[in-house]
Specification:
The protein is built from 20 helices and 51 strands. The protein has four domains: 319 residues, Glycoside hydrolase 38, N terminal domain (7-stranded beta/alpha barrel, Alpha-Beta Barrel); 218 residues, Golgi alpha-mannosidase II (Immunoglobulin-like, Sandwich); 267 residues, Beta-galactosidase, Chain A, domain 5, CATH 2.70.98.30; 108 residues, Immunoglobulin-like (Sandwich), CATH 2.60.40.1360. It has a ten-stranded antiparallel sheet. The longest helix is centred in the middle third of the chain and has 23 residues. With 980 residues, the protein is α+β, with helices and mostly antiparallel strands. A hairpin with a 5-residue loop joins β30 and β31.
Length: 980
């Protein structure tokens, strides 16, 4: 019926196209009245790209017994209703759904939508592939998912497909990094739906629901670090009683006085009264009223007919002016008002609490395996983009699929871990399929590189020490690609057969020192390893892997060997005396443990002894029977902390390249603590699960604590999406859940003498509950739902039993005298984790001599000698024919390094060996606007800018010279010409 209605309305569509031919999408705002309260009705729908149903189930309206929602029908219905009346407006956000709709519809419906967008009647908001989470994604994933959506919109709608307003109305807290990215993408402002309830109430009273957020005051970049920020009054919903959707039970507006149900005289004054209450929390005579909600407008006429009546009869009240509006039109009206706005200086909007006792801090850790796979998928995405450019492979389709899968996972119910289990499985499946799909690109890249085209395998199960190529074959080749801008080093671990020795050769025909390392017992007992042969890990260090290039290694099985032996294997005996034993490769970096219990005691750095203990424990909830007061996918709510102080068993392995302490705390908690030869960090590889559900039947939220003598006064730091550190302070009057903050790559505590930094391999929640302690939550299993909509307890299973999560922490401990070492350990290590050298394996029939002839070192395709050590190529992507997108980042912050925190200037004309650079254009961060043409609204605010640092923002496009300030990212389009 809706589609046939669109055909009937074709003539009116043509007439209106002529009528609006001179009107641009940004001029379509209705006039406001300076002497009245302007009530901006903003029709919208909030369409989750996966939550209770998968993204595709939501699009097609399948599996409706799980939840209502059919996004293709929502878009159809909205387009039809907008076409009925040119005064109507609508705001749409989720590009992933719009992309599906666009591919499904023919030219008529596409043209109709394009006309509505061009006339400003359908306004595209935000532009990201999804409305992303802000706590757990890495900053590079956030940029990419925004760029993917913005590129689609620009491609289909031109200048009108370049959104001006961000709409982050449903994420559970808001980060400074995301806000800064929005500024760098050229957005005029952002609107939020969720902030801490206490902050919300205070802002309502103080009339600070709308503000200028000075995101990074230390930079003092003025408007380059400022964003207009608005908080919606009622999440993203209309006033209670005025939901007109077919899923709602509120009364419609009935205006026929001859009928008994006439209610205009009651409903319209009621609406006006409620909005006047809203208006008391805002500073101008404008109020934004969202008219929509989750998956609303499947029958859009129910909304528009009633809003038409609100406007018609509401405007009979001389004190108000009703109008159809959009977030951009509302923001434009505020800017024209000329008010002086309050300022939020620094900080962010974490943690989020929906009431005084319910903190949405559990999701920082929920579903750790999804969080890890998303990071790995982003890692390989950057690798294959680079290979596609450098080797000119033209294999964009498999890359595009991977881009879409990684972008989809950034949804605020995706990587956050807050979707139903079958939806999470769908995210995982999309990621796994698309990662496997780019293996063929490696095959093509190596064929270009070496002339040989073996089949490449990624061995994605090395996390459980499983890899068919290395375990099965006598000879195989390891290929390692380094996506970093500097040489990389990687300790390679691969499972091999337990009865044999192996030899490893480098591509200079040198034998590489290697060793065989035993697997932890708890790992061997994993159900995923059932039926697999006993294995050991082959370990060696791949050194000096050239930037954006390959190293290859030839591995051959040789003779049989004796079983590995440990230095010691003990069970804890509390009656034995405590003895210290040190493990080290050099005297300046020692790990001291209790030889009786296996627990860590001290770390000696440069002959100075520092307390360093590590314990596990878990939080259990209160006995409240109320579901809304329980831990769940979103909520962390604790009542008691139970400590597992000592390993019940431990063993030590000392090899040529590493020392490992295997610790077992229980049948479901174990850990390997490692130090490597030539390294000054400690690696903790933890394994948690299956978290037991039997016995006490309680929720368990597992944490690890690093205990030091650092006097940090419960102050600590967590990173913002993997970039800047945010200062945090433990609030002793609040419970632990109120003191948890998201970590994407690193957490830190320090005092005047020392600094402890811990780097993670995925997003986790963290806190500092006591002086000297840095705590991370590793895994969770809840027995109940938390009442926030998922209607499932958080109980992930693999092969019918609870999930086992395995991951790593890297610990750096430094004296504050070594300020530069503190920064280097954090910044360089975080890059090596996020953009790790990527390994693929090939079975081979070649002899070592034949392999050497084919794989001896090749000339790199890129010259990186001119790139300074504090600069990283964040994105290298083929964008179009002879057009490359290049994004550079300065990855040091201000004042953290004596040299590398300074601006860096470099020239890139000779960057590529197989391309000539013809032209360079600097773009905004989202790559959809030319930077010098991008202008933003100016706002009056309650302070004057002062400048501490006057960094030069210099870019010479003609000489291809670039200057980057600390933490700055710049994006360029390069026009190139192949040299052969």
């Amino acid at each position: 019926m809706i589609l046939s209605g669109l055909v009937i309305l074709f003539l009116s569509h043509l007439v209106q196209s002529v009528r609006y031919k001179c009107q641009t999408c940004w001029d379509g705002c209705h006039p406001t009245d300076p002497n009245k309260l302007n009530i901006h009705l903003v029709p919208h729908t909030h369409d989750d790209a996966g939550w209770l149903k998968t993204v595709d189930q939501y699009y097609y309206r399948s599996q409706n017994y799980l939840a209502e929602g059919g996004v293709q029908h929502i878009i159809d219905s909205v387009v039809a209703e907008l076409n009925v009346d040119p005064s109507r407006r609508f705001a749409y956000v989720e590009s992933s759904f719009l992309w599906r709709w666009w591919n499904d519809r023919n030219g008529f419906y596409r043209d109709l939508m394009r006309t509505l967008v061009q006339q400003g009647r359908l306004q595209l908001l935000h532009g990201g592939w999804v409305m992303s989470d802000e706590a757990t994604p890495h900053y590079s994933m956030l940029i990419d998912q925004m760029m993917l959506g913005l590129r689609f919109l620009e491609d289909k709608f031109g200048v009108c497909g370049k959104p001006k307003v961000a709409w982050q109305i449903d994420p559970f807290g808001h980060s400074a990094e995301v806000a800064q990215q929005l500024v760098d993408m050229g957005f005029e402002g952002v609107f939020y739906g969720r902030i801490h309830q206490g902050d919300y109430e205070k802002r309502r009273v103080m009339k600070e629901m709308e503000m200028i957020w000075n995101i990074n005051p230390l930079d003092n970049k003025g408007s380059k670090s400022e964003l207009f920020t608005g908080i919606l009054y009622n999440l993203y919903h209309p006033p209670p009683g005025f939901c007109f959707d077919i899923m709602c039970n509120d009364e419609p507006l009935m205006d026929n006085k001859e009928l008994h149900s006439y209610n205009i005289d009651k409903k319209v004054p009621e609406f006006i009264q409620k909005i006047k209450i809203w208006a008391t929390s805002y500073r101008t005579n404008h109020v934004l009223v969202p008219m929509g909600g989750d998956f609303t407008y499947m029958m859009a006429g129910t909304w528009f007919v009633n809003m038409d009546k609100l406007i018609k009869y509401g405007n009979n009240d001389s004190s108000v002016h009703f109008l159809y509006s959009t977030p951009y039109c509302y923001l434009k009206a505020l800017n024209a008002n000329g008010k002086v706005w309050p300022v939020k200086t620094g900080g962010d909007f974490f943690p989020y609490s929906s009431s005084d006792s319910l903190y949405w801090t559990g999701y920082y850790t929920s579903r750790p395996s999804l969080k890890l796979l998303t990071m790995k998928a982003n890692n390989i995405l950057q690798v294959v983009r680079q290979l596609d450019v450098l080797m000119n492979l033209n294999q964009t389709e498999c890359i595009n699929k991977l881009e879409r899968a990684v972008a989809l996972a950034q949804h605020h119910d995706g990587i956050s871990g807050t979707a139903k289990q079958h939806v999470t499985d769908d995210y995982l499946l999309y990621l796994h399929e698309t990662i496997e799909g780019v293996q063929t690109l490696f095959h093509s890249a190596y064929k270009v590189w070496t002339g040989h085209g073996e089949q490449h395998h990624f061995c994605l199960n090395t996390n459980i020490s499983a890899c068919e190529i290395s375990e099965r074959f006598n000879k195989f080749i390891i290929h390692i690609y380094n996506p970093l801008t500097k040489d990389a080093h990687k300790f390679v671990r691969l499972p091999v057969q337990i009865d044999y020795n192996y030899v490893v050769y480098g591509d200079l025909d040198d034998e590489i020192q290697s060793e065989l390392v035993p697997l932890p017992l708890n790992l061997l007992r994993l159900p995923e390893r059932m039926g697999r042969p006993q294995a050991q890990d082959l370990l060696f260090e791949a050194r000096n892997i050239p930037p954006m290039s390959f190293s290859t290694y030839f591995v051959q099985r040789i003779d049989k060997k004796k079983n590995l032996t440990f230095l010691r294997f003990k069970s804890y005996n509390e009656h034995q005396p405590k003895e210290e034993i040190g493990f080290y490769f050099t005297e300046d970096f020692k790990l001291i443990i209790n030889s009786n219990s296996g627990e860590l005691l001290f770390l000696e750095v440069n002959n100075e002894r520092h307390k360093l203990q590590n314990i596990f424990g878990y939080y259990t909830p209160s006995d409240s029977g109320w579901s809304y007061k329980r831990s769940g996918a979103y909520i962390f709510r604790s009542a008691k902390f139970i400590t597992l102080e000592f390993p019940i068993e431990f063993s030590v392995y000392k090899g040529k390249n590493l020392i490992e302490i295997h610790q077992k705390y229980s049948e479901w908690i174990s850990q390997v603590v490692r130090i490597y030869k030539g390294r000054t960090f400690v690696e903790f590889e933890w394994m948690i699960g299956p978290i037991p559900s039997q016995g006490d039947g309680r929720t368990k939220e597992i944490v690890t604590r690093y205990i030091t003598s650092i006097g940090n006064d419960r102050k600590f730091f967590t990173d913002s999406n993997g970039r800047r550190f945010m200062p945090r302070a433990y609030k002793p009057h609040e419970k632990i859940e109120a003191n948890y903050y998201p970590v994407t790559s690193a957490g830190r505590i320090s005092d005047k003498n020392c600094t402890l930094t811990v780097l993670t391999d995925r997003a986790q929640g963290a806190s500092s509950p006591e002086d000297g302690i840095l705590e991370f939550m590793l895994n969770r299993r809840t027995m109940h739902d938390d009442g926030k909509g998922v209607n499932e307890p958080l109980q992930e299973k693999v092969m019918g039993i609870g999930l086992v999560a395995r991951g790593k922490h890297i610990l750096c401990f430094h004296s504050n005298v070594d300020k530069d070492k503190i920064a280097n350990c954090h910044r360089k290590m975080a890059q090596e984790i996020a953009y790790s050298p990527w390994m693929s394996l090939s079975y081979t029939h070649l002899s070592r001599q034949e392999w050497l002839a084919a794989y001896s070192k090749k000339v790199p395709y890129i010259n990186l000698y001119m790139i300074p050590p504090n600069i990283h190529i964040l994105t290298m992507q083929k964008y179009a024919f002879n057009k490359i997108l290049l994004r550079f980042e300065h990855f040091y912050d201000v004042e953290e390094h004596s040299i590398l925190s300074m601006p860096a200037t470099f020239q890139i004309y000779n960057l590529f060996r197989n391309f000539e650079l013809i032209d360079m254009k600097e773009m905004t961060l989202g790559a959809n606007k030319i930077k010098q043409c991008n202008s933003r609204m100016k706002w009056r605010k309650l302070y004057n800018n002062t400048t501490k640092y006057a960094w030069d923002d210099y870019t010479n496009l003609t000489s291809f010279t670039i200057t980057l300030s600390p933490m700055e990212i710049k994006t360029f389009f390069l026009t190139v010409r192949p040299l052969n």
